[in-house]
Amino acid sequence: MAVFAIYGATGHTGRLVTAELLARGKDVIVAGRDPDALAALGPARVLVAPLDDPDALRALATAADVIIHCAGPFAVTGPPVAAAAAESGCHYVDHAVEVHHVHRLFQEYPERAQAAGITMLPSVSFYGGLGDLLAGAVAARVPDIERVTVAYAVHNWMMTHGAVETARLLFADTDRIGFEDGAPRYGFVEPRNAIFAFPPPVGPRAMIAPVPFPEAVTVPRHVRTRAVEAQLTAHTFSEDQAFTSEDVGPDERAGSEFTITAQVLGAAGSATGHLRGRDLWRAAAVASVEAAVRLTEGGVKSGVLSPGEAFDGAEFLSTLAARGLFTLELPEGA
To answer: What is the pTM of this model?
Structure first.
C-alpha cells in the first residue's frame, strides 16, 4: 500500500488532508515540528521533521511514496521539503500560491525529478490549482487562443495564519511574473481597475487585476495562448473577517463561498467555464489528495508538472464535483 506523508499536518489544510486520506483508508504519516500536536491528529504515524533538519526531511521522504506539503508560506517552506522529496525519490504535491516558488520548481527541478522517476506538482491549491485545471478544460474547446482569464469571486474567506503571511508576501512583492505576447513577462505590474462579469447570482464585480497567482506560469505549459491573467474580487480582502480570523474554528472557517470562472478568448470565438461552491479550504485539500492518490497509481509522467498538465482538467474537476466540492459548468463538448 502506498504511503502518504502530510507535511504541516497540524494546520487547517493539513488536518483536512489528513482526514480525507484516513477516510479513504490510506497509510498516512503526519509530519511537522510539534510532536504533541501531531500525535493528537489520530490514527497515523508521526514523524517530527523541522524545516531546518534536512536529515529528518529526507527520512520523511524516504518513508513515503508521496508528500503533500501544506505548510506555507511556500516561499520559505517549499525549498527544503521539495529538495528532500527529489533527493529521496518521493512524489511531491504542494498547495503553493506564490508564483516565484512555483516558477523556481519548474526552473530547477525537472531533470532531478525525471532522474528520480518522480512527479512534482506545485500549486494543487484553490488559488492557482483549480484555476489552472479549469482553464485547461475550457481551452480544449477554443482554437487560436488569444487570452485566458481566470477570475475568482470569493466571499467570507477566513484566512489562517499561514494564509495571512502568504498574502502579505504576495502583495509586497514588486517582482511579478506575468504572461503577455506569448512569453513570460518579469517585473512590476501596476494593478488596474477591472470589472469581470461572473454568471448569476454573482454578476459583474470590481476586480484586482492582475493578482500574482501561479496561472501565468502554469497555464501556458498546457494551453497555447498569447496571454494569461488571474483576477480576484476586490472585496475579498476588504471584508472584515479576512485578516482577523486566524483563531476561528474549522466549522466557521468552512463558510467561504466561491465562484471561479475561466474565460478563454480566441480569434474566432470564446468559451467560459465555472466552478461554484462553499469551503475553499476543503476544495483545495481534496484536490491535493486526489492528485497524490493518482500519482501513486501511476500513469503520470515524471518531472515537474502543473495540475492541468498532469491531468485532464475536465475529468479531474468532474471527479471533485462528484464528491460535492463544487458544481462544475463547462462548454458543451469539454
So the answer is: 0.97
